[in-house]
Structures are given as C-alpha cells and as structure tokens.
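Milestone M4 deliverable, item 7.
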Amino acid sequence: MALDDLGAGHTSLSYLTELRPDIVKLDRALISGLHENDRRVPLVSALIGYAHDLGIRVVAEGIETQGELSLMMTLGADYAQGYFLGRPAPEVAGLLPQAARFWGPS
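Output delivered:
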C-alpha cells in the first residue's frame, strides 16, 4: 500500500502510524525548487526520517532538476519520480506479460 501526497494540506502524519503503508510519496510542493539552503529541508528530512523509523520507503515526487535529485538522495529518499528522470510515456513499456495485460486497450 502507498500513501500519496504526504506534506500536502489534507494529509495527516497520523496516517503513517495508523495505516503503516509500504511506501509514502512526498508531495511535489515540498520538493519543487528545493535546494540545500531552503527552509523546507529540515521538514523534508524529518518526514523521511520518520517514515524510515516506521519501516516505510519514501518516494520524492516532482523531481525536475539534478539539484533536487541530488538533495533528495542526500536526505535519504528511497525513490524519485519526475520529469528530470523521465516523461510520461504514451504506452506502457517493459512490463512482464502477466502485468502488461492489465494496461492497455480492453
């Protein structure tokens, strides 16, 4: 199970302890334009640390620059997604046949 948009206004930290998801995705608003002197860095670092303390892996959403990716790696994010890493594709590629049948025209 994954919890999306952690750090967005409607997401509560209590969901982490109550739901115990496998993965939590940090909201892109926390990551967008993030740099080492940004006032959000301690918050992002604390969220990653808290998730890890609970055994939850962390995805940083909205990575659009090498700097954001490097900083998120330094802060300990387990995974990253965003335009810097790859654009959405018109077709799903690289899936095993048993999974690919669920993606595509019916």
